[in-house]
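Budget justification note: compute hours in this period were largely spent on complex prediction jobs such as the one shown. Inputs:
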Amino acid sequence: MTAVAFDYTAPTTVDEALRTLHSPGLTVTPLAGGQSLLPLLTRREVRPDLVVDLNGIPGLAGIEVSPHRVRIGAMTRLRDLEQHAELATALPVLASAAASVAHPHIRGRSTLGGSLCHAAPAAELPAVAVALGADVVLRSVRGARSVPAARFATGAGATVRAPDEVLTEVVFPRADGLAYEFSELGTRGSTGYPVVGVCLGLHVADGLVRAARVVVAGCGPVPVRLPGVEAELADRPVAGPHRGLVASVAAEVARGPGPEDQEYRTEAAGVLLLRALTARAAREGR
Amino acid sequence: MSGAHQHIGRPVPPRHHDRLVRGHGRFLADLRAAGVLYATLVRSPLAHARIVGFDASAARSDPRCALVLGPDDLAERTAPIPTAWRLPGQPEDRIPIAAHTARYAGQPLGIVVADTPTAAEDLAEAVRLDLDPLPPAATLADALAEHAPPIVPGAAGNEAGSIRLGSPEEDVAAAFARAELVVEREFTLPRVNPSPLEPRGVLAEYDPGTGLLTVHAGSQSPHSMRQDLCAVLGMRADRVRVIAPDIGGSFGSKVVLYPDEAMVCAAAVALGAAVRWVESRAENFDGAYQGRGQRTTARLAVGHEGRFLAFDAHILADLGAYATQAGSGPHQVTALTLQGPYHVDAAAATVTGVYTTRVPTGAYRGYGMQEAAFIRERLIEEAARELDVPALELRLRNLIRPEELPHTTHTGLTYDSGDYGAALRRAATLAERPPPSDPPWVRRGTAVVAAVEITAFAPSALLETFGIAWSGWEGVRLRINHDGTVTAYSGVIAVGQGIETSLAQIAAEGLGVPLDWVRVELGDTDTAPHSDLSAQASRALTLAGGALLIAARRLADRMRTLAAGFLGTDPDRVTQRIGSRADPSSPDAAFHGTDGARITWREVAHRGYRGWGNRKDTDRIRLEEAVDFDPPQITFAHGAHAAEVTVDVGTGRVTVTGYWAVHDSGVLVNPLIAHGQIAGGIAQGLGQALSEEARADAEGVPVTRSFREYAVPAAQDVPEDLVIEHTCTPSTAIPGGFKGLGEGGTLLPPAAVTCAVAAAVPEIAHTLTSLPLTPSRVRAALRAAGITAEGGLR
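Corresponding output:
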């Protein structure tokens, strides 16, 4: 199939992009890495009047690591997240989650901002952004605003971004004392589409969990944090026993809406969490 | 024949690779045509509906529009497509182009032609369909439900007919009466999408001056397509020419004329212009005929000391909305091949075709034999488990031994040659290795399974006996040109498998000339000898190759005789000596007399074309041999596959960690191509084992419409430990001893993988009767067997 006929523009500054996006009455779609948008266009599931290509704007990409936060430009490619030396030290979970996405050809084009705005339910980076407590920065001709990642996605493929807004950067705090890791189950090996993902943050002292952060993706329309499971883990030996944990994850996730195979997915999320804890315990033990 | 030109058996790199890798491929979308227009099909969004209205007025009034044909227009311009292979009692024997009732979602109802592809899409959306919904029957169960409305108007129900193949009923009953163990299971083999890399496509050009319709099409069988187009459009055979350009895979999904392809041709005729349609991936999922689709109850009777007594099966075949040209054919092949390589006292199967409101099913690589292997090998594995004997031992005890061949099965197939036990033992040996240490949630298992493969399908008389309205013979024309170069013409088709290289090797060896003297021309009905079945049914190399070998030997004799005439000596005193890098006119490519006289190959060809030499009136002049080869019988390839899998009991994920295949396709012409064919077949088979299923919702509307929802195996899903070996028992029926191997690789992976999963987790073995083994399905079976997701973790 071919896309509907649309106009195309490639601004060279953010301001120019914002002015172009502010086109009341028109359906305007920003183009980032295009790895999700282009198939949607050719299948006519997205029918824009105008596509605004953000790839020619300098300054929308880049990783800036400072003592308390990491700022990442929206057009930063996932491949760059994966290979950035400072980021690997500051927030290694971002590199490992990025490396879990599809395969290198796709990661060379797809962007952090595009991934967040596409808001696929099982996607890796939105889940990590929620777990890390990131802020999503949006700009328009009307001004700039910052939205917590946990409130950014509102449903499968839906976010609070207004049609005339551009996601310009994502700001990750780095000082909450937890060490994060991301694990997932895909439709195939490591190159398939994600089915379920778990981002686990832990503070462990003397073999005991002092604080935990658990976010699961793929079990509902948006990534969800599981405060009940986090509380259950607190003060437990990280090595377990974690009796009933898989069931607790399922019970807490199942409170929300989910896909047809939610039962399978929630159980798998519990299994991923249990294995992440076991792996962490093994590392602690060394 | 010169010993310097032994080309058969050499791993020559396939000729088309260089061309394709450099971007010189010419696939359907690449073809140039002057003033070409673009078509989009208007397809039914509903699975079952009466078409009350097809309002194209908005589309027709758009300046970009060239033509719209709706159901009424198509009814005036087309006749239905005839079918070739029908079930007894089948209520319909034709497939309409013009439909006034849609029977599946995605069914083409009309066609829009415009000046650009985008305009054609826009205008197709502008056609307003008024549909009166009818109740869908999305599954076999829905279609066979007591009050299910008939899909074929006026029919009593949704059964399309039934046939029983194999042993007489009393023999089957007697064998089961003697049984010490009967294993009975119900198997579900889902519909799958053949998923060629290049979807279908047609470029049809009609010249009103000459009345000639030239059709470029991604067709696996251009002559069949031409015959069907003649019937549909009411045209003479010599006014339709079908040409297959480069084809990016087919796997059976491009063997017959489809209604949408016929609509593109009808539009070209109506416009007197060139019209191109290139199928989108979503359309390929919705509209290209699917493979498999079967629910089968089958049982195995086992007697004293584990001796197999009988196989019996009742196959419900999901034909979809129409019985296509070959209709229930694949399912009948399941029935024919259920017995496999084993001795039994009786074997029989009933095939019942069932109409459903889904896209029709048809040919797909393996053509019923994969289903037969899955059913049979699962029953055997289950019998071994219940008897508590090693499955390998049980199989070896019951295999037909080489000294017992030829052996005729209960369905009348005569196995010509092979050593089934050697392949099975070798595969089992290859798969033996110490298990690595796995995490507590991983179970590991290995299994080895066996099958025979119908190749060189089929003697024309056999097709006549079965009432299949196709021929089985294959013709070739081999020509030595006036410059001494060689051109071979064949009716088989290159679909990426490398057949043009293998055929060149056969011709070059038969003539005793360098390989690069030979060019192979395929795919054009104006030049290719007639072929009904062409490149399907693992037959291209065996039949075209066998014919070519005969033609080459004849032509080599004629060249020697001509040379002897020019040298003034007897043919048996002439020696053909051609250097391995010689060209046809060089002095080291010559015929030599005993007295030192010589004449170059090119000079012999050149003079031969002038009709010079001591020619008798009855001698032929043109240096061309046409050979039609009708095989005396089917020749049977065979193989054994071993799979090692891990099962993650927490996630249900099955991973194939090792795969070993031992194949016997007789004399291999090109081991490199043979390896590629088997490896590709295994990859496809792994997809059906683990991930592929063409699903629809309860209304019958497809939900797998892209590679996001439909997971074909990627490189990563094929184990690095993929070992392929060949044994060689030459065919006794085919010149050169060749056997086919186009489908062999794909027959066994579902059986091997599923039996390995059963070995890994015997607790769920009895439930492993349905494919694919998706993580959620395996996890559900594990859960039902009381195996918790924690998988040994605390």
